[in-house]
Amino acid sequence: MDDLSRITNILEAALLTAGEPVSLAQLSKLFDPPLEPDIVRKLLDELRAAWSGRSVELAQVASGWRFQARPEVQSFIDRLSPEKPPRYSRAVMETLAIVAYQQPVTRGDIESIRGVAVSTNIVKTLEDRQWIEIVGHRETPGHPALYATTKQFLDDLGLRSLAELPPLAELDTSHLLELPDAPAKAAEVELALASPLVDTPARESDDSGAAAPDGRAEPPESAPTLH
User: What global pTM score does this model have?
Assistant: First the structure.
């Protein structure tokens, strides 16, 4: 076995056992001395080609590289995790969609678009889910926090960067790949991004849509179930 084949096997084993995306820098440091990033990238591209046509694929997402099930077999794998996905209020999903497509935004920006106050619970729910984070503060009175989506958000969508985020009206659900450790994540993002941004009637408050302490909806039938 030549050196390149051995290195490829090590990269393959690391990615198969990591359980989460691994960055190029981390993969380079598996070796002493660390490999040049260009060499690692070339070997990863070859490894991805070697796995083509199988039910598992090597994909690059925002946080790095990972092995994941192909969309056509994901529904079968989901049966290994029969737990019900969490339910989120429409307010939470609309807020996520606004942040995703208008970022960076302040709570005031979100309220202007939705025509209703954004409760702290809604923001906390999305932060706890690691889908949004504070990336700075606007240079205006009060210095309001600016929110943007995270690498975790892109990972859950199977994207490498925001540039790959499709237009809202053309969102391709085949890109919404569910992770082995959280099979409901991708579907939650899908429903969130499919929520209308500006056509929501103005309401007095979000209390009815985010009654639970963590910003999730209570059981009423009007709240959509995320799969």
Answer: 0.64
